[in-house]
Amino acid sequence: MIDVHCHLHDEVFDKDRDKVVERAKKRGLKYIITAVIRPEEISKALEVFRRYGGFVQLTIGHDPVLVDKEVFEKQMESIRKNIDLIVGIGEVGLDYWCVRDHEARKLQEKFFIEWIEFSRTYNLPLIVHSRSAGKYAIKVLLENKFYNAIMHAYDGSVGYAMEAAKYGVMFSIPPSVTYSVQKQKLVKKLSLENLLLETDSPVLAPIKGERNEPSNIIYSAKKIAEIKGVSLEKVVEITTENALEIFKRLRK
Asked: Which domain holds residue 54?
């Protein structure tokens, strides 16, 4: 299995990160992809990336809540510096849950479009954050004809998801699918060929309120298998192949 999106460098793992990684390996994970979203996280994430010798991979993006041109440009420069190390760009996107101001949302969208073009330039997949903004994020992707994207922990309507999936946009499913009716509906309607596994650790655990970790990816896989009426092995096989297809650098 491949955890395509988490935050393993988060300080909540500082005391037991080695054990967390060991549990992930024992559970059968092939890779963990940790996502940087703020400038102050980069050096720590690079340390974690280097410590685990290829097992932990890296993406760098920009927290949409930081509607700040200076931070945006700083993150873009950081990606350029580390472009040979990363397997994707993200998470980036829109957040209408935290950002309510109309002008700030317009700037979020402007940044998002720039990230799309940046990803297109470097031929890297884009991991999209779209909290309370799913249909708007999908609309931007489709209008810009950019489909090399992963909708991470998508909380929007299934209808918009199905429209994006027609073009090959992927959806990564966190362990919260065990109790989230919206995520369950998403899994039911989307093809297995459009699904990936993520944990978004340390949040979105299979049990509300608990700390999440990459080994919990198994809960995503098991719930998908249950909803789809297929074997766990089939879910693992297809989602892993999907991940290797979109994160082409993982094959190297």
From this structure: 2-251
pLDDT of residue 245: 97
Q: Is 0.85 topped by the overall pTM?
A: yes
C-alpha–C-alpha distance, residues 89 and 73, integer Å: 14
User: What sign does the dihedral 211-12-197-155 (CA atoms) show?
Assistant: positive
* Residue closest to 74 by CA, chosen among 40, 109, 124: 40
Copy the structure tokens of residue 58.
């890296």
Average pLDDT over residues 48-64: 96
Q: How many domains does the chain have?
A: 1
Side-chain half-sphere CA neighbours of 155 within 13 A: 12
Instruction: Give CA–CA dist 60/37, Å, rounded.
Output: 6
**How remote is the C-alpha of 130 from its chain's centroid?**
11
One-character DSSP codes across 169-200: -EEEE-GGGGT-HHHHHHHHHS-GGGEEE---
Question: What does the DSSP 8-state code read for residue 87?
Answer: S
Element (H, E) at 75: helix 69-81
CATH number at residue 87: 3.20.20.140
